[in-house]
Amino acid sequence: MNLILAIIQPAKLDAVKEALVKLGIQGMTVTGAKGFGRQKGRPLAFLGLLDMEGKPFTIDFVPKVRIEIVVNDDITDAVVDTIVSTAKTGTIGDGKLFVIPVSRAIRIRTSEENEAALTIEEPATVSDSRKK
Fold first, then answer.
1. What GO MF annotations does this protein's record show (predicted)?
2. Residue 123 has what pLDDT?
3. Can you list the residues of the chain whose pLDDT is less than 70?
4. N or C: which end of the chain has fewer CB within 10 A?
Protein backbone atom coordinates (compact mmCIF):
# COMPACT_ATOMS: atom_id res chain seq x y z
CA MET A 1 0.00 0.00 0.00
CA ASN A 2 1.06 3.57 -0.65
CA LEU A 3 0.00 6.99 0.52
CA ILE A 4 -0.20 9.34 -2.41
CA LEU A 5 0.10 12.91 -1.21
CA ALA A 6 -0.51 15.48 -3.91
CA ILE A 7 -0.35 19.24 -3.53
CA ILE A 8 -2.07 20.90 -6.47
CA GLN A 9 -3.66 24.16 -7.61
CA PRO A 10 -7.17 24.59 -6.16
CA ALA A 11 -8.64 25.17 -9.63
CA LYS A 12 -7.61 21.63 -10.63
CA LEU A 13 -9.31 19.83 -7.73
CA ASP A 14 -12.63 19.02 -9.43
CA ALA A 15 -10.94 17.69 -12.58
CA VAL A 16 -8.55 15.54 -10.53
CA LYS A 17 -11.40 14.18 -8.40
CA GLU A 18 -13.47 13.29 -11.48
CA ALA A 19 -10.51 11.55 -13.13
CA LEU A 20 -9.76 9.55 -9.97
CA VAL A 21 -13.39 8.48 -9.57
CA LYS A 22 -13.37 7.26 -13.21
CA LEU A 23 -10.24 5.29 -12.32
CA GLY A 24 -12.15 3.61 -9.48
CA ILE A 25 -10.84 5.52 -6.47
CA GLN A 26 -13.44 5.21 -3.73
CA GLY A 27 -12.28 7.87 -1.31
CA MET A 28 -9.77 10.60 -0.62
CA THR A 29 -9.03 13.30 1.92
CA VAL A 30 -8.76 16.88 0.74
CA THR A 31 -7.55 19.82 2.81
CA GLY A 32 -6.65 23.40 2.08
CA ALA A 33 -2.99 24.27 2.23
CA LYS A 34 -0.67 27.22 1.71
CA GLY A 35 2.92 27.10 0.58
CA PHE A 36 5.56 28.29 -1.80
CA GLY A 37 8.11 26.76 -4.09
CA ARG A 38 10.16 28.27 -6.86
CA GLN A 39 7.78 31.17 -7.32
CA LYS A 40 8.55 32.38 -3.75
CA GLY A 41 5.11 33.87 -3.36
CA ARG A 42 3.15 36.13 -5.63
CA PRO A 43 3.71 39.87 -6.20
CA LEU A 44 0.52 41.92 -5.90
CA ALA A 45 1.57 45.11 -7.72
CA PHE A 46 -1.32 44.61 -10.15
CA LEU A 47 -3.68 45.28 -7.24
CA GLY A 48 -1.84 48.48 -6.40
CA LEU A 49 -0.56 46.99 -3.16
CA LEU A 50 2.86 48.38 -2.33
CA ASP A 51 4.97 48.07 0.82
CA MET A 52 6.39 51.01 2.77
CA GLU A 53 9.31 51.26 0.32
CA GLY A 54 7.05 51.36 -2.72
CA LYS A 55 7.85 47.80 -3.78
CA PRO A 56 5.09 45.35 -4.77
CA PHE A 57 3.59 43.65 -1.75
CA THR A 58 4.06 39.86 -1.95
CA ILE A 59 2.00 37.01 -0.59
CA ASP A 60 4.58 34.57 0.75
CA PHE A 61 2.27 31.57 0.76
CA VAL A 62 0.21 30.58 -2.26
CA PRO A 63 -3.12 28.73 -1.79
CA LYS A 64 -2.96 25.01 -2.68
CA VAL A 65 -5.03 21.88 -2.11
CA ARG A 66 -3.62 18.75 -0.48
CA ILE A 67 -5.03 15.39 -1.58
CA GLU A 68 -4.27 12.21 0.36
CA ILE A 69 -5.17 8.75 -0.95
CA VAL A 70 -4.02 5.34 0.24
CA VAL A 71 -4.05 2.78 -2.58
CA ASN A 72 -2.87 -0.75 -3.23
CA ASP A 73 0.49 -1.18 -4.93
CA ASP A 74 -1.07 -2.44 -8.17
CA ILE A 75 -2.87 0.85 -8.91
CA THR A 76 -0.31 3.31 -7.50
CA ASP A 77 1.24 4.12 -10.88
CA ALA A 78 -2.15 4.64 -12.53
CA VAL A 79 -3.27 6.99 -9.75
CA VAL A 80 -0.01 8.95 -9.90
CA ASP A 81 -0.19 9.25 -13.69
CA THR A 82 -3.84 10.37 -13.51
CA ILE A 83 -3.16 13.08 -10.93
CA VAL A 84 -0.07 14.38 -12.74
CA SER A 85 -1.70 14.51 -16.16
CA THR A 86 -4.91 16.09 -14.86
CA ALA A 87 -3.33 18.67 -12.52
CA LYS A 88 -0.58 19.75 -14.91
CA THR A 89 -0.82 23.19 -16.52
CA GLY A 90 2.84 23.45 -17.44
CA THR A 91 3.43 26.54 -15.35
CA ILE A 92 5.36 27.11 -12.13
CA GLY A 93 3.13 26.33 -9.17
CA ASP A 94 1.46 23.18 -10.50
CA GLY A 95 2.44 21.40 -7.27
CA LYS A 96 4.17 18.25 -6.08
CA LEU A 97 3.26 14.61 -5.60
CA PHE A 98 4.79 12.15 -3.15
CA VAL A 99 4.40 8.37 -2.88
CA ILE A 100 4.97 7.09 0.65
CA PRO A 101 4.88 3.40 1.67
CA VAL A 102 2.13 2.47 4.16
CA SER A 103 2.76 -0.56 6.32
CA ARG A 104 -0.73 -0.90 7.81
CA ALA A 105 -4.23 0.53 7.44
CA ILE A 106 -7.17 -0.07 9.78
CA ARG A 107 -10.84 0.86 9.38
CA ILE A 108 -11.61 1.99 12.94
CA ARG A 109 -15.33 1.09 12.91
CA THR A 110 -14.86 -2.56 11.90
CA SER A 111 -11.18 -3.19 12.66
CA GLU A 112 -10.70 -4.40 9.07
CA GLU A 113 -7.09 -4.12 8.04
CA ASN A 114 -5.05 -3.30 4.96
CA GLU A 115 -6.84 -3.91 1.63
CA ALA A 116 -10.18 -4.59 3.34
CA ALA A 117 -9.87 -1.26 5.14
CA LEU A 118 -9.41 0.58 1.84
CA THR A 119 -12.41 -0.75 -0.05
CA ILE A 120 -15.92 0.57 0.35
CA GLU A 121 -18.34 -2.02 1.58
CA GLU A 122 -21.85 -2.23 0.24
CA PRO A 123 -23.96 0.36 2.04
CA ALA A 124 -26.65 -0.98 4.33
CA THR A 125 -30.14 0.05 3.31
CA VAL A 126 -32.65 1.40 5.81
CA SER A 127 -34.58 -1.88 5.73
CA ASP A 128 -31.38 -3.88 6.34
CA SER A 129 -30.58 -1.89 9.46
CA ARG A 130 -34.11 -2.35 10.82
CA LYS A 131 -33.92 -6.12 10.44
CA LYS A 132 -31.10 -6.33 12.98
1. ATP binding; enzyme regulator activity
2. 59
3. 39-51, 56-59, 121-132
4. C
End-to-end CA distance of the chain: 34
Structure confidence at residue 119 (pLDDT): 82
CA dihedral 44, 65, 88, 69 (to 10 degrees): 170
How many of the other CB atoms lie within 10 Å of CB of 69? 22
Task: Read off the pTM.
Answer: 0.77
CATH code, 15: 3.30.70.120
Instruction: Yes or no: say if 59 and 46 are a contact pair by the CB < 8 Å rule.
Output: no
